[in-house]
Amino acid sequence: MVGGAVLAVWAVFRDPTFDYRPLIAGVLLPDLIDAPFGGARVMHSVTGSVGLLALVMALTVGNRARRKRWLGLPIGTFLHLILDGAFANTKVFWWPFTGFGFDDARLPVVQRGLVNVALELAGLAVCAFLWRKFRLDDPRRRRRFIREGKLVVPTTR
Fold it and tell me: Helix or strand or coil: residue 27?
C-alpha cells in the first residue's frame, strides 16, 4: 500500500519538494487506529479522512509550508481507503450516514485473506520500481529521503 500511495502521489504531483513521510504515515494510520478496536471503524470511513483533512487545514491556517507538509497525512488516509478497497463495505465507508454501528466489520486486509499475498507482491514490485527510479541505492539520496522525505528523479544515471 505504501508503494502504491507514493507512486500515485509522485505521478500526480511530480513535486521534488513534497514530503512523503506524512503521506506514508497517513497510509498506515487507518489500520493502526482501527485495528485495536477490532476491525474497520472510523478511519476506514470517508468521514475519518475528511475529519483529518479539516483538522490539518484548521491547524495550519496562516502557515503554507506547514500545511503543504501535513496535507500528506490526509492524502495518505484517502489513498488507504482506495488502495485497501474500503469502499466495498458501504456501512463502514459511509459511516455515520448509513448508521452508527460497524457490525463487527473486519479490516479489509484481513477480510481479503490469501488475495493479500498477490497484492503484497505487487506492492513490493512497486517499491522496487521506486527504489530504482529515485536511485535510493545511493546513500545520500536515501539519507535525504529519510531526513526530509524528498524523492527526486535523477537527471543523469
Answer: helix
